[in-house]
Amino acid sequence: MALFNKLNTPIFLKEESTTAEQIARLKELQEKATGKVKDDIAREINLASYGEIGEKNIAFELKNSGMPMYIIHDLHLQFEDLSAQIDYVVVTRKMVFFIECKNLYGNIDIDNQGNFVRSYPWNGRTVKEGIYSPITQNQRHLEVYKQLNRSNKKNIIMRIGFEKGFDSFHKSIVVLSNPKTVLNAKYAKKEVKDKVIRADQLITYIKNAEKQSKELASNEKHMKEWAEGFLAYHTPITTNYLKKYEELINSQSETLVKQAPTQPIIVEKPPEPIPVAETAAPPLPQSEELVSKLKDFRLKQSRVENIKAYCVFTDKQMQDLLSKMPKTADELLGVTGFGPVKVEKYGAAIIDLLK
After folding, report:
1. Among the residues of the chain, which ranges form H helices?
2. In this predicted structure, what is the pLDDT of residue 83?
3. How far is CA 10 from the centre of its chain?
4. When comparing pLDDT for 232 and 154, which is higher?
5. Helix (H), strand (E) at residue 198
6. How many Å apart are CA 204 and CA 200, to the nearest integer?
7. pLDDT class for 196, splitting at 50, 70, 90?
8. Mean pLDDT score across all residues of the chain
9. Between the CA atoms of 194, 196, 200 and 201, what dihedral angle is there, to the nearest 10 degrees?
10. Helices 243-259 and 35-63: crossing angle, nearest 10°?
11. Global pTM?
12. Helix, strand, or coil (residue 173)
């Protein structure tokens, strides 16, 4: 036990993630795909690879911190219909840090309302776009953990104690892992500024938080038990986000097989052109009605969340919605700008509108 108490380096209880496996599977599918499906998969590979690089940057900082801590990478929590995928959970002597990693291209501005706006150069001009608040995203992760933990505490006194001391022990932070990203939080409120940092500031941030904490420091044994408690809640992700591509590729293969001639066809003159059946576009009034309904939903949702309307979805993303008309959550994941978080948050309502 004495030897264990001399811990002064970080230990990963879980270091692997599903990202590498997902990228490998995407590359396999890309080789079989053609046309737009192949392009969409290439985009998915780029996004996943970019995210993986960001998480590796944070892992590097944690590994070289020289601090006693236990680290869990890619923790997935499930409570009833709620789920959370947390990039890093870091358990130190006094606190637990929930880290949301963002490897964003471009610079980030945070206004006095807490809105996140990303700007980046494109074709000789600067593009600005709102992004979903990673602070809100990470806070949702904490809420899932709180409910999961609360449900496991049958003793009402223990439950009250957990609720009362939660904010003292748990800290939610967003780490921008791209070293080229410039963060401008000049007009952001203090509680927002305190939750967004760059990767090169992470260890200093953790040390300062530990120093300012008035909680008693845990020994290594309790730290490990604390971290193992988090890991015990981990559940593998069962949703297959690649299923949509698998189905599209299978559909393409079946079409090619049906179109392949079974024997040589000899003709004396060029055949008459065969009209190609096209999917009829919806009548204009219906399109206008859908646009109106989607815009109305977007406006109401933005007011509820106190965010800009384009943070829910942009006009370009809305056009892609109308073009693809997804009928399921898996199909909605194939729409530009709709990742797992947005699908989980807005998916049911949007699909109902499109129906």
Report:
1. 19-32, 35-63, 134-151, 156-169, 190-193, 202-212, 220-232, 243-259, 284-305, 315-324, 329-332, 340-354
2. 87
3. 25
4. 232
5. strand 196-198
6. 8
7. very high
8. 81
9. 0
10. 150
11. 0.64
12. strand
